[in-house]
């Protein structure tokens, strides 16, 4: 059975889910998106993802043609129509088709696309062994350029950093900000733990404010840990007791080395493992 894609109010077969070659989403990366997990048929943190999508759209002066309530219903409907039990939803809003040129007034029909699919995850073995990552030379977007807080269709900056990681055999790569401080990884936020205190870069470090990040902060505090949103340098990661990454696909994944510096004892630490379990229990409604 072919997949059903939501396109501008209709559920259509995959082959009919097409957008114009003149869409500014394609021509200029002009648009926004979200990636959301489905666990046991429940769309995880849907209100938070919809909120972030509309905030991203607002920041780029893109008016989404349906309300947040309609978007929420459309996501639920698409997940049900594809009979997704555990999977992933990709929500994409493009600026729409228009003549060539950057002027947004040339476009008139933003495209609303919802794809409900399966998800490719990190190898389960990596949760046992931990990730070995590197620092990319490509820095995160300067906040005065395309703000990292916008989940825009233009991910080229992160793709360039990801290439550096892949070339060096690393499944993720750390990105610094324009000041040289730690921002985040190409598709995941980063946390360190030192003497029981959990730290992660603040929103203004040039990060996407991850929904997983915020859930993990809340769960960690509920478990009695101090969590600080503070400026971090690479040195703080090199000398941390533990390190882990968070993201919709990754959930919570331990990280055991950065740039060849072994973090802690080189194995996933106890607090990282505790938070992975707490997150999985929460996400799966246990
Ligand atoms: N940072 C970036 C750059 C990302 O693309 C993502 C994944 N959307 C994240 C962090 C993690 O965010 P979330 O937990 O909302 O998936």
Briefly say what this structure is.
By secondary structure, the protein is α+β, with helices and mostly antiparallel strands.
Can you tell me about this structure?
With 286 residues, this protein is an alpha+beta fold. Helix content is 29%, strand content 27%. The chain has two domains: 4-117, 2-Layer Sandwich (D-amino Acid Aminotransferase, Chain A, domain 1), CATH 3.30.470.10; 124-283, D-amino Acid Aminotransferase, Chain A, domain 2. The chain has eight helices and 15 strands. The strands form two sheets. Strands 7, 8, 9, 10, 11, 12, 13, 14 and 15 form a nine-stranded mixed beta sheet that branches. The longest helix has 14 residues, at 46-59. The protein is globular. It binds 4'-deoxy-4'-aminopyridoxal-5'-phosphate. 4'-deoxy-4'-aminopyridoxal-5'-phosphate (PMP) binds at residues 35, 158, 184, 187-189, 208, 210-213, 246-248.
List keywords for this structure.
six-stranded antiparallel beta sheet; 2 domains; D-amino Acid Aminotransferase, Chain A, domain 1; 8 helices; 286 residues; alpha+beta; D-amino Acid Aminotransferase, Chain A, domain 2; nine-stranded mixed beta sheet; binds 4'-deoxy-4'-aminopyridoxal-5'-phosphate
